[in-house]
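Worked example (supplementary).
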Amino acid sequence: MTASPSHTLANLAARFDLQLRGDGTRVIAGVGTLQDATPEQLGFLANPHYRAQLTSTRAGAVVLRAADAETCRGDCLIAADPYVAFAKIAALFERTPVAMPGIHPSAVVAADATIAAGASIGPHCVIEAGARVDAGAVLGPHCIVGERCVVGAQSRLVARVTLVRDVLLGKRVLVHPGAVIGADGFGLAFDQDHWIKVPQLGGVRIGDDCEIGANTTIDRGALGDTVLEDDVRLDNQIQIAHNVHVGAHTAMAGCAAVAGSARIGRYCLIGGGAGIVGHISITDKVTITARSLVTHSIEQAGEYSSGTPIQDNRAWRRNAARFKHLDELARRVQQLEKEAKQ
Amino acid sequence: MTASPSHTLANLAARFDLQLRGDGTRVIAGVGTLQDATPEQLGFLANPHYRAQLTSTRAGAVVLRAADAETCRGDCLIAADPYVAFAKIAALFERTPVAMPGIHPSAVVAADATIAAGASIGPHCVIEAGARVDAGAVLGPHCIVGERCVVGAQSRLVARVTLVRDVLLGKRVLVHPGAVIGADGFGLAFDQDHWIKVPQLGGVRIGDDCEIGANTTIDRGALGDTVLEDDVRLDNQIQIAHNVHVGAHTAMAGCAAVAGSARIGRYCLIGGGAGIVGHISITDKVTITARSLVTHSIEQAGEYSSGTPIQDNRAWRRNAARFKHLDELARRVQQLEKEAKQ
Amino acid sequence: MTASPSHTLANLAARFDLQLRGDGTRVIAGVGTLQDATPEQLGFLANPHYRAQLTSTRAGAVVLRAADAETCRGDCLIAADPYVAFAKIAALFERTPVAMPGIHPSAVVAADATIAAGASIGPHCVIEAGARVDAGAVLGPHCIVGERCVVGAQSRLVARVTLVRDVLLGKRVLVHPGAVIGADGFGLAFDQDHWIKVPQLGGVRIGDDCEIGANTTIDRGALGDTVLEDDVRLDNQIQIAHNVHVGAHTAMAGCAAVAGSARIGRYCLIGGGAGIVGHISITDKVTITARSLVTHSIEQAGEYSSGTPIQDNRAWRRNAARFKHLDELARRVQQLEKEAKQ
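After joint prediction of all chains, the assembly is encoded as:
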């Protein structure tokens, strides 16, 4: 463990192009929430919901918008986007484990795999035939890089990541533990009275700067590849079926699921637990709220939802029972309207 | 890597009992979609949705129904079920990794485990006491076969599969990475002010020809076993709770979940993300559409659904707000009807 | 394998403070359901649903409530809470694998990690710098204990559990295979045209007597920790996002998901597949039924639900189509009421 870093406010302001208000010589040794930050730490105000904490915070300084600076009695750094500025500053205080370049003696590496000189292969990793790990890539313990897979430069497989086969990761891709990339898609043909498996012959291509969450699964294509373009961000336990195509800069929250051959645009936001059925297409800049199910293509940018609101169980039971007869209710209203007009 | 196989159209027609129309000497070296196939590849038309591509495809030949053969200008193979025929042909072009029989030196195998002569045990596998791996079974890297588990002949655990204990896999079972079979079921008894664990004493029995997706979990029974009959097909991230019984030939799409002691019939299709509550029973040949929640037993074959349609968020908000008062709305309609009758 | 234990009814009655009715010398060699138990086994009746099986059971004896004892023709043990009593008795018959204390030679342990003398570290485990495993803790095969993690006394990581870093497990915590605790939370800031990662600097704190299911994921905090208090019970495939706080004795069924910074009270029951959005708060003793989505804070104990009932697909389609115009329907009813009053 190395000594924690520290930075003066003036230094942070210069480095991240922020406006300093207050004592530039103040030393910042960490970051925190407004509620918990100590006088040695920097807090931030991005969500107006927490504005009231500005007067009670013990933080040594706060990153905030110009409009909020008035309310701030202490030192502050003014940013056009305080959350972005805070993210960049916080990165200075991150303790990323230092990976030793080289191959751990317990790893099993195929004779014809290519491991770049600066790459780090952790304990018990398995690198199979024809695989390639590029410079600066880091594989934590228990990663499997299957046949013909490529781990791009500076990518990091945190631990216990499985790339099954024919999986290409771009540069600076971050994959969390338990993720499985390149397993067979779910392809079945029904042959009279039983299933036969449809061979899954494609691969997976993942662009630069993507992040893949813990226990997320991305299947390889049946014919052709499953594709994530650059800067796609997937949270934990997401399921991406075969031949899905996800556009650049799209982010999906935990437990979202996308069925086979669906095509999602760029800059989309897919809420937690949302579902997208197969063979449909979603245009750019679409937001799907949590747990909604998308059953047809969406051609217009905007926000979309499905579901019903949470209620006290008794009230819900009564309403849900009525839902079962909603069509009939609508017909009765039509009938009343007809009668009223006579 | 071996040379890619190739086959003449006449050879394929004879092998799979298909009707050839065109040049039987044409050599096929791979398969593809109508959209992407090259002149060396075979395409297929199963989904009428893609019929228009028949005129533009560059595929060397196409597998299709007799009715579509008219529209096909090039060579074709006529099949009663083109998707089944294509699946069988595609299997000829699959590059399944060849597993070396024998036990990798990094594997840890209990003294009293039984490994058949022809089985293949990959790097870093762990085979515990009393376990058995039958002839032709292949365990990729990082598989764990716990106490008293059996891996049937010709079964394949792709990589990093965990069989916890008392798990019996039949013949030709295929299990994808991250699957956990035989973990404790979720059994709790509330003892005045805290939980006590209900011991999970059963096992898991999985029939022949089943497929289990990546990161899917199948818990062992509390008393008695959790059972999948033959030819059950589970996609990724499915959760099967303790003492569930799934009938033969049933298929479930990704993220479906089945609660404890539910009984599902044969030839059912459970859509992606669908849920089935505990202690209920679903008869044969039931289809549950994506994301539906089954809260009571289903005694009649057919298709079942729940949920509400996806909408623009603003419209949805208004409708969802009304759902909270749907019972009251129905009562008001009743009142209007009563008044109208007077 | 050791010989199965056996106990007389009198012995069981004394040990668990139950009332014996019948032959105290009867020997019990196992437990079973009323339906399947043999004459050597003890059955139980907790759920009135199964009361009819009391007359047909072959069980040697039955644990039940006083009120049901009348109907029981054979020997029985009378308990205030038969399910709790049964759980305790069943534990006598559990065959928990005996773990050998010590470190398996294939494990990789950092020089400065602390492993208590009585702890058991299984094959291929990886224990990283600054980690600590306390007395009596058992790590099955393929567990990873990352930097600065602590596994409390008597805790058990069944197999292939990953603690990423800065994860503290209390005493007697049970974690099932595939669980990932301490992966990065999903923190992103949108910087003009691309995402930047918000560093995840916190850890995870898990209290005593918690249980974490297979393939469940619990992310570490962004700033501050993600917290599970004592006796929290999580089933399989649950997703707990960064900075969530779960109160003591709360239980969640499979596939539930909790978004960032949500706060859940004590003694809550979260149904299978239920979702809880971020930054909200749920008070003590709240039950959320299966698959419900909680979108706002809940301040009163009770049972809450959302969703619509399962129906035949045709009926559902008609009703769902009407839901899209429910607000308009309500307005039409209002109009009719207005007209009726005139």
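Two points are worth noting when inspecting this output. Chain C has a mean pLDDT of 96. The CA atoms of residues 106 and 128 of chain C lie 14 Å apart.
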